[in-house]
Amino acid sequence: MNTFRSTIICFFLCVFSSYAQSIQDIIDAVDLDNLSLTLREFTGEITTVVDENTVTITNRQQANNELAGDYLVQKLEELDNITINDQQFDSNGRNIIATQLGKTNPNNIYIICAHYDSVADYCADDNATGTAAVLEAARILSTQCLDNTIVYALWDEEETGLNGSSFYAAQAAGNGDNILGVLNLDMMGYDGDAPGTAGDNQFDIDIRDFAGSIDMKDDIVAVLNSYTFDLSVIVVNPGTFSSDHSSFWANDYSAVLLGESWETNDQTPFYHSSGDRFSTIDLPYFHELTKLTTAYMATVGGLVNVDNGVSQTVTTLTANQASASYQWINCDTSSSISGATSQSYIPSVSGNYAVEITSGTCTELSECIVFDTLGLDDFLASEIKVFPNPVKTNLNIEITNNTESIALDLFDVSGKLVLQKSITNEVISLNMKNLPRGVYFLKVSSSEKTGTYKIVKE
Ligand SMILES: [Zn+2]
Q: For residue 374, how far is its CA from the centre of ligand 1 (angstroms)?
C-alpha cells in the first residue's frame, strides 16, 4: 500500500493495519502479485538479482541448482525473526531451512515445506508453486508473534529420491524434535477441469494413518470451513508416498501432502517436462491454496494478537495496542528514537516512523508510517485569528468561512500535548485557565492547511 498519499488524505484518525492481526488478516495479506513475481523469477521467465548479479534461474536440477538455493537464502534473509540453516547434506544436496522460534512453546514445531529442485527447465508447477507458497507464508508470518515454532523448509533432491527431506526427518527424529505437523506442498498451481472455464478448484490432501496425520487433515479442513476460500477438498487416504511428507511418515511424524488433484486426474499435463511453465499456472487457484496453507500455519502456530497498527493525527502517532511497552523508530535512519517510549509519539520533523511494541514475550514492529504535514499550506493571516495573546483564561480561535472539522492541538514548550479539540464552526475558545504559565504552541490543522501559533499564558 502506499501510505504516503493516505497520510495527507486521511486526517483526524487513520488506522494503518496492513500488517495482520487475525487469521482473516493473514489470509488477506497473501499477495498474488508477490506470488507471481516469485514464480516468474524462480522459473527463469524473468531475470532476478542474486548476490548483486543479474541472473536467470531457468534450471533447478539437483546438480545445477546452487543459484536457486542462493536465491532462496537471499529471500529469507530479508525477513525478520527467523534464522537460516543452509544445510548441506551431500555433495550436491542443500536444504534451505528457516526457523521462526515460538514465543510460548518453542519446542512445539510445525513445518511448512516444499522441494525446490526440478527435473527439467522451468518446472513452474513442480515445484516453484510450493516453493513460492512457503516463501509467502514466511514473508507474512515472520512479522507476527506466534506461540509455536514454525520451520519453513525448502528441500533439495526430492526428484532424485526424497534425499533432502529424508536427511532432515531422520536427523530430527534422532534429536527427538517435537514436530507436531508437516505440511508438504508439491504441485499446487494447476486446475484444468472443464476446459474453457475456471476449473473446479478441487485439491488433494494425501494422508495415511501415521502419527496424527488424519487429525492434521481435519485441522486443515476446519480452517477451510472457517473462512471463505474458493476451494473444494478431496481427501486421499491412503495417500501417495511420492513426495517429501513420506520422509516424515517414515519417522512417525504427522504429515500431509497438499496440492492439485491427482485423485480426480486433474494434474498438470506438462508434468516433468519443460512445458511446465508459468503460463500454465492457474493463478487464482494457486492464490486460494496459498491463502489456505498460510492460514493453517498461522492457526497451528498460535497467532498472538498484538495489534501493531498505528493511528495518526496531524500531530501525533499512536500505537493501537494499549498496555504494552513501546520504542519508536526512525525508519529513515533505522534507529531507535531516544526517549520515545510512550504509546504516542509526536514527531518534530516529517519522516518515516515505526513503533516496536512489546507485550509479554512478544515483540512486533508496525509498518513505517509516513508522517508529513509539511505538504499542507499555511493559513493566511486573513483566514485565522488567535487571541488574546498573551492569554489568561480563554484563548479564542476564529476561522473565516470554516465548513469543515479542524484540529486544535496545544503543546507545552517541551512538545507535550496538553489540550486537544476539534471545531466545526468558525469560533471556539480553549480554556487555558488551569495550565501553568509559560510558552505554548497551538497547532491548527484542516485537511488542506495548517498553522502553528506561539501563545504566552500569563
Ligand atoms: Zn514435485
A: 54
Tell me how far the alpha carbon of residue 186 lies from the centroid of ligand 1, in angstroms.
Answer: 5
Residue type, 376: L
Q: In what order do the strands lie in the sheet with 384-387?
A: 384-387, 394-399, 427-431
Sign of the dihedral through C-alpha 352, 25, 284, 49: positive
Residue position matching grid coordinates 493525527: 313
Phi, psi of 358 (to 5 degrees): -115, 120
Domains of the chain: 22-301 (3.40.630.10), 377-457 (2.60.40.3080)
Alpha-carbon span 94 to 135, nearest angstrom:
17
Pair 296, 227: CB distance under 8 Å: no
Q: Residue 348: what residue type?
A: S
Dist CA 309 CA 355 (whole Å): 9
- Judged against a pLDDT cut of 90, whether residue 416 lies above it is answered with no
- pLDDT digit string (tens) for 26-83? 999 999 999 999 999 999 999 999 999 999 999 999 999 999 999 999 999 999 899 9
Average pLDDT of the residues of the chain: 89
Q: How far, in Å, CA of 341 to CA of 355, rounded?
A: 9
Which grid cell is 128?
516453484
pTM: 0.74
For residue 325, give Cα distances in angstroms to 162, 306, 308, 317, 337. 46, 12, 12, 15, 14
CA of 203 to the centre of ligand 1 (A): 15
**118 alpha carbon – ligand 1 mean position (Å):** 7
Question: From the CA of 115, how far away is ligand 1's center (Å)?
Answer: 7
- Identify whether the C-beta of residue 79 lies closer than 8 Å to the C-beta of residue 138: yes
Backbone angles phi, psi at 130, to 5 degrees: -60, -40
The cell for 349 is 520533523
Contacts of 140 (CB under 8 A, 6+ apart): 20, 26, 29, 30, 294, 298
Q: What is the pLDDT of residue 18?
A: 40
Give distance in angstroms: CA of 265 to centre of ligand 1. Answer: 16
Checking if the pLDDT of 285 tops 90, the result is yes
- d(C-alpha 7, C-alpha 74), whole Å: 32
